Protein: Heat-inducible transcription repressor HrcA
Amino acid sequence: MSVIPIPELNDRARDVFRLVVESYLGTGLPVGSRTISKMASLSLSPASIRNVMQDLEELGLLAAPHTSAGRMPTETGLRLFVDGMMQAAEPSVEERRAIEAGIAESGPIEEALSAATATLSGLSACAGIVMVPKREPVLRQFGFVPLNARQALAVLVGQDGSVENRVLDLPEGVSPVMLNEAANFMSARFAGLTLREAGEALSREMEAERGALDRAARDLVARGIATWSHDADDRPVLIVRGQSRLLDESTAADLERARQLLEQLEGKQEIMDLLRGALAGSATKIFIGSENKLFSLSGSSVIAAPYRGADGRVVGVVGVIGPTRLNYARVIPMVDFTAQTLSRLMR
Structure:
């Protein structure tokens, strides 16, 4: 059913509809006409409100889950409310400080993104999600720390201060002196390069058979570059935090919906496909329930906002996943502010 333009609703219908939606989003429960008559100065009797609610139901904006129950907004009604009637509330000073503090206290960009996601999850009572931009770190320094005769800890330090460690299997006969020699060689030759560029430079060195390293040390360097490069290719590009917040009191009566939602969160590739739709725009996007096939069964909503890199281009998406009855007026500006804060960090 197509969304009814707001001008086609008279003032009385708009007021009743807004009160039903706001009450439902606050409680998660259907709303009856008597409840509406007590909470608003509409000067309407419960019978008159009931008639208006019936009209709204015929328009596809409200629905009654049971014959004797009150009304609740349909997904069409929620879309109408979010797009044309909702009055967004700016994040409070405390919320802004919490988001900024969580991001500022983190080190490498992945940690900042994870912190932003966890903070957003806590403030919104939803699951926080962030799409990590694919990037190649610029290298600064390498090191090898021997663990035993057959293994060493390979340490990579990026220009941005990030530090990554990998356990590396060693060829037979590698000595601590050789480890130190290989680390010095890598730091001298590959500083300022990306992993891909370092691998290409190493290939040229080996093809030219230059004598700076013997064969065993060259093999050690190649193993280190290959290990980091492989891990970078396989690095998760989606961070999800706060899944447990989706299991609130309202889900106790609908465990199947909760189970479906948690299963959907495990399918990160499908969520990535959904979030890529937000990469193309410059504004926050809202997906409500079955508007997206991924969450049609669980009846969930996604709010996602793009954030930008140093060159101003969109590099990732941050947002939340929660029930369709989430507090859109509060959460949408919160997601937007988080995206703006991440954009400032990436500059």
Observations:
- The radius of gyration is 27 Å.
- The CA atoms of residues 144 and 157 lie 12 Å apart.
